[in-house]
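Many introductory courses stop at the sequence. We go one step further.
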Amino acid sequence: MTRYVPLVLLFVCLVASPDSPSMPDAVLEVCLTVDQADHLDRLPVSIDPVAGRVQVMERGPLSPYDLFLPDGDNRVLRIGFASGNPAGGDYLFVNSHRGYLDHAILLSPEATPRLQRPRQAAFAMLGYHGQRYLCLMETHGPRQRSVFVARIPARMGAELRLFYKQMMLP
């Protein structure tokens, strides 16, 4: 019996940990429909859309990544998407935080986490219960969309834990 106690305690610590892998449903719902703000006022999630279209900022043989940044006011929170060679790994970033797409937690079991058209993606910052979240939404035709969502850690340099979900709109 006593040899099971450490395992039980470890399990309880993992479940109770504030960094346990979960994403509030309200945050996911808002991110999936961030471009349809008419019905979002009923949810307790604040939305700060990042204005401007996404543009390529760096590219070439000297840079291992193509950087895609919204062209709006990006001084307070430096956000964007970096696409590199396959060995480098694509990632989203907020200031010094990175979240690698290939490490995203899949919330749609049939999905493969990738960003197909970075220039057409929509960025937004979301707020929920005192936490801030990065939202990147991409549409795939008139009814299908996918999102990457991450809670922005308070600790500088901590990795973003990305969640990926696909959805068909009604």
